[in-house]
Specification:
The chain has 3 helices and 7 strands; from the N terminus they run ββααβαββββ. It has about 120 residues and is of the alpha+beta class. A hairpin with a 6-residue loop joins strand 5 and strand 6. The protein is globular, with a radius of gyration of 14 Å.
């Protein structure tokens, strides 16, 4: 299990932990598609963000965090899937201003979308 070779040194950060437990994300499709679980770098967005954070996928440890994001930014999507992460899926670390926000750095070859199932729909 390796991270992509083009990632910067120290990415993910040394204090990131093995991915474990349930996480939630706002997506546009049911079931989630690979495009719903891209990092900022894969989307070509947030070029001003820290390089390592751009390589992770934003998720929430509690449903409420994703529900708040969906309500605040409805253009992000109307579905909230839950994913069950295991150590073989990568590393995670609590990041951002919201305490529930987590960055997930997945190992190369992980089919991220296949780990998620929609549990909530709005609209």
């Amino acid at each position: 299990m390796d991270f992509p070779k083009d990632w910067p040194d120290g990415c993910p950060p040394p204090d990131a932990e093995d991915a474990t437990g349930d996480v939630f994300r706002v997506v546009k499709h049911n079931p989630p598609e690979p495009a719903d679980l891209l990092s900022y770098i894969e989307m070509g967005r947030r070029v001003d963000a820290r390089p390592c954070l751009r390589r992770g996928v934003s998720v929430f440890r509690e449903f409420e965090g994703a529900a708040h994001l969906r309500k605040t930014f409805p253009q992000m999507g109307r579905f909230i899937p839950k994913g069950a992460l295991q150590p073989e899926h990568g590393k995670t670390k609590s990041t951002g201003k919201q305490p529930l926000h987590t960055t997930w750095w997945s190992y190369e070859g992980v089919n991220r979308a296949s780990l998620f199932s929609v549990i909530s729909e709005e609209g």
